[in-house]
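### Sample
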Amino acid sequence: MPPAAAAAVAFLSPSVAVSRRALPLRRARHLAVRAVASPPASKPSKVRSPSAYLFGSKMFCMLPIAIIFSDSAVIGFITPLLYFQTGKWQWKFENQPVNIYYEEHEQETGEDVKNILMIPTISDVSTVKEWRVVAKDIVGRKGELGYRATIVDWPGLGYSDRPSLNYNADVMESFLVQLMNSPNSPVANADGELVIVGGGHAATIAVRAAGKGLIKPSVVAAVAPTWAGPLPIVFGRGSDMETRYGLLRGTLRAPAIGWMMYNVLVSNEKSIQSQYKSHVYANPENVTPDIIESRYELTKRKGARFVPAAFLTGLLDPVQSREEFLQLFAELEGDVPVLIVSTLNAPKRSKAEMEALKGAKGVTKFVEVPGALLPQEEYPLAVAEELYKFLHESFSARR
């Protein structure tokens, strides 16, 4: 049982025993070749190591400078390999503006480019960081198709604003729908070919929105998909427990005592480390001090406790049962290619829900990778490989 869940239940019932866009830079589309006088033979030029150059919020990663000598000339070229930029998109909910943080990763290429929206797993310490390596790996590959990846933090999580909204699964779904359909959003120019890649609850919320016809993804990839929050998956949804969940939720949202309770349950390094080692990561040795420190910092941001209050107590759960979970995917049968990426070492109850999707209606392909609940961060190259193969298969089939 996660430490936060155990502490929460002890609090609720002591009788329960628990053991951009700044300075835009024009990107070169053509190779620049220039003939110059031969350099002195005594001092051959060196090949420089890759460099990164920052312009405003946009960073360009460059290939090494390649110098080719001939009898009469030096031919030199610098080719942009990858670039990324950060930005804020304003989402409006109930007339309240909420700044949403996003990152874009793209390769300089003239090939056909497909757009990928990556959404982080919803958790106490959700962040775009979990998808960065996967995005860079997929975007950096050479093939018939090119890819552009946009990673977006959920409202109330990561580096997005964290207002005191009444967060639930419907609010998060509404955000995703507006993000994909608004003409000024960071994924507005996807030309109807937007891939959605999500982890945990995020994947299930995306599938639910697609099944309703509110969004129209070209491909969906659900990585370690889940549907039940920490307390409901352990203690169920009986009326007595729902009452206790409500009590805990109200306490966490309260002005003063809320921060105190949040610090006990979530915002402390020992709790975060314990959760990562017990069920978030498969290999405890992969839980580094840097990871814990960066996640701890996220819990100290203004308004950090509001979404965890909803997530911990099940308000962000998109469905209430396995039957409803399977039905969400069945709704996409024949319309959208769907990849399920399960994990070898997921917690027993979460693993059972993932396994239920094997061969289920609406699931195009089911694969397993190393990891637990956050394989995209712990084993990003394994996840990237499966995603890349599925995207290639899906888009090739349409030609």
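The chain has 14 helices and twelve strands. This sample (AB hydrolase-1 domain-containing protein) is used throughout the tutorial notebook.
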